Amino acid sequence: MNGKYAMKILALEFSSQQRSVAVTDDCKPLAHVFTENHKTSPMVLIHEALTKAKIERSEISLIAVGIGPGSYTGIRSSIAIAQGWQLGREIELCAVSSAEVLASTARANKLRGKTHFLIDAQRREYYHCTWELLDDKQTETTPLSIINTTKAAQLKAFGHDANELPHCEPLYPNANALASLATEQSNYIKGSEIEPIYLRQTEFTKAPPLRKL
Fold first, then answer.
1. Which pTM does this prediction carry?
2. Biggest alpha carbon distance in the chain?
3. Domain at 74, CATH number
4. In whole angstroms, how far apart are CA 47 and each of 20, 59, 98?
5. Whether residue 189 is found in the same domain as residue 161
6. Is the CB of residue 193 less than 8 Å from the CB of residue 82?
7. Based on the domain organization, do 127 and 150 belong to the same domain?
8. pLDDT per residue rounded down to tens, the chain (213 residues)
């Protein structure tokens, strides 16, 4: 991996309706499990993936996390697992945009050329980006931004949780693609430094001071 030594990777991609866990030995896939039942505990998915891969938890060297945009709850849960795992064991962590994972999933599915991707952003809005997909690489050509439903409905695109859009074909970011991207990473980080991708500005109203009675 990166010219160093082989690493067993646990990849957690929970940013969409379809939650996905993969275990790889560098780029070699060992196991992949997924579910659309959000009542299923993430730890159950991880245990199932490790069991299929015949890998012990202690053998994991790197955890790769898809950090969105997408499901706030799913992303936060995968980050929390990675943070806790690193506290318990000395492992590496890397964080990858789920939009990049989505593009990598599309490329693994043989999609090529300029490709639009859409991710539900709630409030009748969508995260949008475009990637140029080639046989040997992928390049982001339009960075992530938020667009309205009217504009999103005009695009021939791929993405998840976008059933109301007439030209968007279903595609979920795959943990195997995340693991593959992780083998190209060298910017490992501390768990405390992982933050989800969320393009909206935080808005809040400061509570008024307490009244004196």
1. 0.90
2. 71
3. 3.30.420.40
4. 12, 13, 22
5. no
6. no
7. yes
8. 444 557 999 999 999 999 999 999 988 999 999 999 989 999 999 999 999 999 999 999 999 999 999 999 999 999 999 999 999 998 999 999 999 999 999 999 999 999 999 999 988 999 999 999 999 999 999 999 999 999 999 999 999 888 789 999 999 999 999 999 999 988 899 999 999 998 775 454 555 565 555
